Amino acid sequence: MLTKLDVFPSCLKTNSDGSRLVVGFVDGTIRFYDTTKFDEKSEQFEENWRFKTKSSIRGVEIDEGRSRVYAVTLNRALCVFDMETGRRTRCILKCHSSKPMTLCTLPPTALKSQQLATADESGEVKTWNLDADVAMVREWKEQSEEINELTVDCKSNLLATSSDGTLGAYDLRKAKFKVRSELMHSELFAVCGTNRNVYVGGEDGYVEVFNLNEYGNLLERIESGFEMGVNGIVELRSGLLGLISGGSNKMRLLNVQPSKRLGIAGCHGDEKDLDDGIDAITISTDKRIVYTMISFSQTIKKWEMSPIIDGIPILRAQDAKTKKKRNVEGFFDGMVEKGDEDSDEDSDDVDDEEEEEDVDEEEEEEEDSDDEDRAPGAKKRKVEDSDEDVDVDDEDEEEDVDEEDDNDGEDEQ
């Protein structure tokens, strides 16, 4: 289901069952939709409420437990809205020293009632308790460039992907910084946590894999199939990920453990529109509904994932294995060039024949060179000398015959 918008969207977020959707726009508008109702004429979801701020919306989040909608804006404001009425209940001006990039709701296990985390372009991360008079709880500056996405793993660690090529982990139970990963091969955009691993999308099109709660060193790299980077990752079911890229309007499927690319789940819009890349993705908590957004075309697509997922088999480790031809080489094979199909005996015979051919060719070349060096008169003289030698030999033979005849005559007498 594709809905057309009249303003360029910038961000979106859905609730637990996918029935509600909040969208932020570049003109500063926040709109809250009921996606179970669709108007065929306008090709839009039913709108429950909207609120107009003074600056472009950089990120939105839904907190169903407190019935709130959070938003951060380009002019560094953090706003809180009532989810049912759309009324703004609180606004913190200049919540960051730089322009905010993203935000994330926190679990109840977070220390000191931390409810929300925000991050900005300078790499600064802050946590908030918006029920307190002094809302800010913690502040970290452990990463040097903009934070592209925030999420929380199942161990209550706040994870932050940064354009400086690192993944930062913050312990929410202790409210302190935990670890920063080794430097990756490119900028890091997206992050998705599962029960066993954490998957991070990079600018080079690879998915970086980390062990859960072990974010210092990289475990594995998986090629996604996207050339323009991985902008979003969602877990569709256990062991199956959905990937999007800003350079493609397709959603790719990636099986993990074992790692295997499973093709394309579908396209956002027309398959021929190769210039439109998916900018954002969000998934419901029950993993049945996915929303994707393309800002340039001003469209949002609702994906019913059950028909797609049901047709994809669950892969086991032996299903993804491929037989590889084992190449057994000797210690000195790297020093000698040898064909793959030649045996030792055949190679020896071929070498002997090649040596004989080389000797014959060398002798012929020497004779030809000698003939070319001599003058034509020298060649003729050689032939005449050989004829004279033959005549002398004939005369000597005749003299020997005459002497034998004379000796025979004397004996008879």
From TrEMBL:
The lineage of its organism: Eukaryota, Metazoa, Ecdysozoa, Nematoda, Chromadorea. It comes from Caenorhabditis briggsae. InterPro entries: ASTRA_WD_repeat, WD40/YVTN_repeat-like_dom_sf, WD40_repeat_dom_sf, WD40_rpt. This is WD repeat-containing protein 55 homolog. Residues 339-373, 385-413 have a biased composition (Acidic residues). Residues 331-413 are annotated as: Disordered.
